[in-house]
Amino acid sequence: MTSLLSFRKATVSDIPGIKKILDEAREAQRQQGFTQWEEGYPSKGVIAADIESGRGYLLEEETELAAYSAIGFSDREYERLENIWNHHGPYGVIHRTGIADRYRGRHVSAILLDFCEKVIRDNGAGAVRIDTGTNNRVMLHILSKRGYINHGVQNFIWGERIALEKIFT
């Protein structure tokens, strides 16, 4: 299966499929016993804004959508917390990551993060930053295995989250 996965920018016509992936991811959070995304988030409007700004990316198998992430190259909230980061040059951020139920548990997150990190690195950034809920043990485990540095619980405008950073060598 993984040899058939490809990565591409999302388009407006992908919004219903992306919304389904993110709704499934929100439900998976609930099944794991925590709430990171409130009901209705990310909305179609947020997804459309990701796509319009060129931040929306999809992982797909042939024509079936497997996962979604938003990739950016600045974030006011991350910059507000400038004293916690180890890397102070150009960086990328990963937001709104979700994996379709059908692909959950198949190491698709590693493939998705590989692609996201490559986009960020190819755009000249020296590090990637991400945040996740304090109870999102699955994501924390994945990021720890990938060499992300845990900068502890931080108060973002979207709530308390654990801030993580990976510096490219």
Give structural notes:
The protein has 169 residues and is of the alpha+beta class. The protein is built from 5 helices and 7 strands; from the N terminus they run βααββαβαβαββ. The protein has a 7-stranded mixed beta sheet with strand order 1-2-3-4-5-7-6.
Task: Write the SSE topology.
Elements (H helix, E strand, L loop, with lengths): L4 E5 L5 H17 L12 H9 L3 E6 L2 E9 L3 H5 L10 E9 L8 H15 L4 E6 L4 H9 L3 E8 L2 E9 L2
Parallel strand pairs: 4-5
Antiparallel strand pairs: 1-2, 2-3, 3-4, 5-7, 6-7
Helix coverage percent: 25-40%
Strand content: 25-35%
Largest sheet: 7 strands, mixed
Globular, elongated, flat, extended or rod-shaped: what is the shape?
A: globular
Order of strands, main sheet, comes to: 1-2-3-4-5-7-6
Distance between the termini: 30 Å
- Uncertain stretches of 5 or more adjacent residues: none
- The count of DSSP E runs of length 2 or more, i.e. the number of strands, is 7
Q: What's the SSE pattern? A: EHHEEHEHEHEE
Which structural class should the secondary elements be placed in?
Answer: alpha+beta
Helix tally equals 5
Arithmetic mean of pLDDT = 95
What is the alpha-carbon Rg in Å?
Answer: 15 Å
